[in-house]
Amino acid sequence: MSSVADSTSIIMENKQKHTSDKTGKRILMCGNEALAEAAIIAGLDAYFGYPITPQNEIPAYMSRRMPEEGRVFVQSESELAAINMVFGAAATGKRAMTTSSSPGISLMQEGISYIAGAELPAVIVNVMRGGPGLGNIAPSQSDYFQSTKGGGHGDYHPIVLAPGSVQEMADFMPLAFDLADQYRTPVMILADGLLGQMMEPVLLEKKERRPLPPKDWALTGAKGRPQNIVRSLWLKDGVLEEVNQRMQARYAEIKKNETRFEQYEIDDADIVVVAYGISARIVRGAVTKARKEGIKVGWIRPITLWPFPSEVISKAADEFRIFLTVELSCGQMVEDVKLAVAGKSPVVFFGRTGGGVPTVDDVLNQIRQLTIKHKS
């Protein structure tokens, strides 16, 4: 009969073997599982979630891997419970996260507002599906407004990162946790059902954490120090305004330091296509084909949807160009593009909704039509 010590030794060996089997090697994984393993490598302490398609691979993966690592996994009774469990774990200074898909994220909005109001770090992943309502389980980008404009009540913004590949599904996890810890704010990964389900080679690496402030605000017991209080209710006259002004100063710092984007062939472009996530991959193929046809077109991909890369789009609009925004929605990010362009150039929208995904040729045809209009 093996002893408890022998059993513990075997478990530890299996844990080390499992982690070393994945870290530092290129492996074929679906986006959801790559994201989950990357979160574990990034130091996730506690995961709370509730199943919903098309992100079910994440809680399923976490249910096996988190116990293997000696960390917390809870399948909650609802999305409301999951986000409030994240609140509790984050208040103790632990790295906590939840994942869901569009209807589930809608249910979490009050909790996300509380987390923002309490100035706590947390990571929320939305693998978007078609809507409104229950919609369908096909890919969509129709949660842009909800994610970037707050979603819940109050003057707050989560940082919103939009991956465009399975590799980025993994790479953005350590970044998300670092941003959350540095700025004491919720960070959202905004993906979609296609990115969550598709399989690509991915390299999982343990990344060095950026310098982070101490979590001296955390609820870790007050023996030998003054009591910490984590809350979002401020009833004394003028105090809530001070809290909001402090948060707004932090958002200004985020805008200055953390705005991310990618651009290609902008310098001589007559047409600039703006897209994020899976749409940006389709746009790249269309722009490559268009360039081979002699069409002067480039693209800008927002990586942070909040803060939005308004300055780079505004600068591109200083020279007369046509902007084409491509989304899996009826038109949401296009409003931020129009605000950035500020009337200096025309902005055209092309989108599919309800789970429809345009082809490279669909986008190429839109570029060709705009080329004809531009020449005329």
Brief rundown of the structure:
By secondary structure, the protein is α/β, with parallel strands linked by helices.
Secondary-structure element string: HEHEHEHEHHEHEHEHEHEEHEEHEHEH
Count the E strands: 14
Q: Which structural class is indicated by helix and strand composition?
A: alpha/beta
Shape: globular
Strand content: 15-25%
- Number of helical runs? 14
Rg, Cα atoms, Å: 22 Å
Mean pLDDT: 93
CA distance, first residue to last residue = 85 Å
User: Sheet with the most strands?
Assistant: 7 strands, mixed
Tell me what you see in this structure.
The strands form three sheets. The protein has a seven-stranded mixed β-sheet, sandwiched between helices. A five-stranded mixed β-sheet has the order 9-11-10-13-14, with helices on both faces. It is of the alpha/beta class and 376 residues long. α2 runs parallel beside α3, α2 packs parallel to α8 and α11 packs across α14. The N terminus is likely disordered. It is globular, with a radius of gyration of 22 Å. It starts with a helix and ends with a helix. Helix content is 44%, strand content 18%.
